[in-house]
Structure formats: structure tokens, C-alpha cells
Design a protein that fits this description.
393 residues, alpha+beta, Butyryl-Coa Dehydrogenase, subunit A, domain 1, Butyryl-CoA Dehydrogenase, subunit A, domain 2, Butyryl-CoA Dehydrogenase, subunit A, domain 3, eight-stranded mixed sheet, 10 helices, 10 strands, binds flavin-adenine dinucleotide, flavin adenine dinucleotide binding, FAD
Length: 393
């Protein structure tokens, strides 16, 4: 069946309307929102961008990121689940997995039988993943992994995680490889962080896990041995764009909430929307929205062009750069929009009972994960200065 973009948006809208009360309740109780997966399954959203030959809907990038924008309005937590499961979970399997590996994981992921996650970060390897210390050793028809992964979205609920490591004895010198690791085996130990130890997104699952002689069948290697860094960086293009799209949704929600509130709240004898300094905030949020929307759309269109010409390195380079630019811009714009929305709500804005305050706390992480502000600025600067001016390798 050909991909139906209108149907995807209808299903996304229905999902969003059902997930909102569940998210509000979970937020009030500061606990994991266990309704996201069942509701996404009900509305057939767990395989949005997975190919139809592997049980997904086969959404193009523009449609997929438009759906993530709508989901982003429900909060950064809800969108982060989809990023972990699809943008950085299913995407590398679909892009670098063998046909057998795709058949093993993607239909189950699309049906909601397997939740996916992406484990690159370690306690001592964040902005520079090359500083990781996870190792693997090939033993017959399997790989054996040892190491720790840290701050992994969906890490405590995932059935399979994309993990990365060096060959044993060659940490920092060998070439990183990428694997799909099942979490239901004895060598995999997961520990979810206490929800109250987080500044925002109390309803999300962020976990660390340890691998002690964790076994991966040889066919669960992504690409060839040594391809891991390429897999990680290629996956981050998809991940960054999903963060940018989600942040656009956050800005849209901040705008809707701010307009609604400012038109009814009265101070100094009139609705606060009539005060010029309140209109200044509203104008800024609208400009955050318009500029982010065009950057996300441009980056998604380029990703579609690049996907249509897989061997074209120039298109891939442009898609990578536009995704980094969209992510840097939209995450900062969302932070600004949420801050302004809080200001317009006054004392109520500061309360987590209202949406702007929750957006402000939740969206802050978007300037950290999938490439910090600083790393993205270095990447953007190197693109205009020239490769020989790269401030980091
Ligand atoms: C809620 C949450 C969810 C996450 N989900 C995932 C996930 O699903 N999978 C995953 O693999 N990771 C995930 N992460 C980890 C995230 O990607 C890292 O936190 C991020 O890459 C930054 O690494 P770090 O925290 O180690 O900071 P560090 O790398 O220690 O950086 C600290 C500061 O130094 C700056 N810095 C570092 N190097 C340079 C440099 N060369 N030049 C200038 N400044 C520099 C950074 O920009 C930052 O400001 C998640 C994190 C959070 C908080």
C-alpha cells in the first residue's frame, strides 16, 4: 500500500489527543508515562518511518518529521520516546542492517513488540564518543561485550539497544563497531535513574546499563566491523532532525497556550494581550516558530533528497549540516519560546501545573543530547571556515 501522509497525520492527531491526559497525570505524579507505547501501538505510530516491506508505514522524512512536530507539542518526553525508538533505534537497523537483521527487529518494532534504544554515551565519553571504553571480542559465531552505557533514552524499557564498542585490547586505537544487543540476556544489567534525580522529563525513561560478557550473535553486527563511528554519526543526522522537529512542536504549543492565556488574563484593567510588552513576547515566540519551521522543513527535504541518492556524498554532507543547523536553532528557539511563555503566564508560568513551565524544564535537555550547542557550533563553523579549521576531530 502506498504511504498515506494524510492518514499518518490523522493517526498522529488521535494519538496526541489521547496521550495528553496520560502525560499530564504522569507529570503530576512525576512517574514514567506507561501509556505512550500502548497508545502509539493503538494508532499504528511505532513504525512510522520503517519501510512497508518490514511492517512499517514507510513515511518519507518530511512526513515523519511533521508527525514528530505534532507529537512535540505534547512534550519533549513523548517525542523523545519516538526519537529513541525510531530516529536513532530503528533507523540504523534499517540503514546498515542486513536483510535478516531488518526482518528480525523491524516488524516487531513496528508492531510494538520490541522497543528500541541507542546506546552511544558512556560516563567518560559524551561529546567525544571516541573516548568510549566498551569493548567486544569475537568468539566463534558471536561477539561478547563489556562496558557501561549512560543516559540512554528508553534504555530501561528497551528490548534491544544499538551499542558501540572497540575491539578488546584496542580501546581508543581500534575502530568502533556497532551491534544490536538484546536486553533479555544475563550479561545485560539495566538500572533506571530515579525519576526525581532529573531536572525535566520526569515521565521519560532515561537509564544506564552495564554489559558483562553480554552476548550478541554475529549477524547482529551493523555494517562491517569498524563501521561503528560512521553508523553513529549517520544516525545522529536523523536523531538531530527529530529533536529539532520536536522543539518546533514545543514552540507551537507555547504559542497556542500564550495566546489563549493572554487573551483572557486581565491586569491593569485590560487583557494582558493588549499590553505592548506582552505582545513583544508573543511576536518573539511567533518568530521562533516561523524560523524553526523553515529550517526543519529544509533539513527534512534535504534528507529526503539524500535518501533518494544514497551514493551522493555532497547531498549527505548537506543533509548532515542542515540537520545540525536546524537542531541548534530550534532547540534554542524552543528554550526562548518556553521562557517567554512562562513570563506571560506570570506566577502560574512558574508552576508545573501549566504547560509552559513543564516545557521550559523538559526542553532544556534538547540543547545537550544528540550534540551539545557547543559541538554543533563547532561543526557549523568548520563547514564555513573549511575542514582544515576544524576545532575538534
Ligand atoms: C535526558 C537525556 C537523554 C539522553 N539520551 C541519550 C541516548 O538515547 N543515547 C545516547 O547515546 N546518549 C544519550 N544522552 C547523552 C547525551 O548525548 C550526552 O549527555 C551529550 O552528548 C553530552 O555529553 P556529556 O553529558 O558527557 O557532556 P560532556 O561531553 O562532558 O560535555 C560537557 C560540556 O563541555 C562541552 N564540550 C565538550 N567538548 C567540547 C569541545 N571540544 N569544545 C567545546 N565544548 C566542549 C560540551 O558542549 C558541554 O557543554 C542523553 C542525555 C540526557 C541528559
Amino acid at each position: 500500500m502506498p504511504f498515506d501522509a494524510a492518514r499518518l497525520m490523522e493517526d498522529t492527531e488521535a494519538f496526541c489527543q489521547e496521550v495528553r491526559p496520560a502525560e499530564e497525570l504522569a507529570y503530576a505524579e512525576r512517574k514514567f508515562n506507561d501509556q505512550v507505547v500502548p497508545l502509539a501501538k493503538k494508532h499504528n505510530l511505532l513504525g512510522m518511518n520503517i519501510g512497508p516491506e518490514y511492517g512499517g508505514r514507510g513515511a518519507d522524512n518530511v512526513s515523519y518529521f511533521t508527525a514528530l512536530t505534532r507529537i512535540g507539542r505534547e512534550g519533549t518526553t513523548v517525542r523523545t520516546f519516538f526519537s529513541g525508538h525510531l530516529s536513532i533505534g530503528a533507523y540504523p537497523i534499517q540503514t546498515w542492517g542486513s536483510d535478516a537483521l531488518k526482518k528480525k527487529y523491524l516488524p516487531a518494532a513496528a508492531r510494538g513488540e520490541k522497543v528500541l534504544a541507542f546506546g552511544l554515551t558512556e560516563p567518560d565519553a559524551g561529546s567525544n564518543p571516541r573516548e568510549m571504553t566498551t569493548t567486544y571480542e569475537k568468539k566463534g559465531d558471536r561477539y561478547v561485550l563489556n562496558g557501561v552505557k549512560y543516559l540512554i533514552s528508553n534504555g530501561g524499557i528497551a528490548d534491544a539497544v544499538i551499542v558501540f564498542g572497540y575491539p578488546a585490547g584496542a580501546v581508543g586505537t581500534g575502530r568502533i563497531s556497532a551491534f544490536v544487543l538484546d536486553t533479555d540476556q544475563p550479561g545485560f544489567e539495566k538500572e533506571s535513574f530515579a525519576v526525581n534525580a532529573k531536572m525535566g522529563m520526569p515521565t521519560s525513561n532515561t537509564a544506564m546499563f552495564e554489559m558483562h560478557e553480554a552476548v550478541v550473535p554475529a549477524e547482529n553486527l551493523l555494517g562491517a566491523e569498524g563501521d561503528g563511528f560512521r553508523v553513529a554519526m549517520g544516525t545522529l543526522v536523523s536523531g538531530r532532525l527529530s529533536v529539532a522537529a520536536g522543539c518546533l512542536g514545543v514552540i507551537e504549543d507555547c504559542l497556542t497556550e500564550t495566546i489563549e492565556y493572554a487573551k483572557v488574563r486581565k491586569q491593569h484593567g485590560k487583557e494582558i494581550a493588549r499590553h505592548q510588552l506582552v505582545q513583544d513576547h508573543i511576536a518573539h515566540i511567533e518568530m521562533d516558530r516561523v524560523a524553526s519551521e523553515s529550517m526543519v522543513l529544509r533539513a527534512a527535504e534535504m534528507k529526503d533528497r539524500s535518501a533518494a541518492h544514497p551514493g551522493d556524498k555532497e547531498l549527505a554532507r548537506r543533509a548532515d549540516l542542515l540537520a545540525a543547523q536546524a537542531k541548534f536553532f530550534a532547540t534554542n528557539a524552543a528554550w526562548d519560546a518556553a521562557d517567554r511563555a512562562v513570563q506571560v503566564f506570570g506566577g502560574r508560568g512558574w508552576s508545573t501545573l501549566y504547560r509552559p513551565g513543564r516545557h521550559l524544564m523538559d526542553v532544556r535537555v534538547c540543547r545537550i543530547y544528540e550534540g551539545t550547542d557547543e559541538i554543533l557550533k563547532l561543526k557549523i563553523a568548520a563547514a564555513v571556515l573549511g575542514k582544515e579549521w576544524e576545532a575538534f576531530k
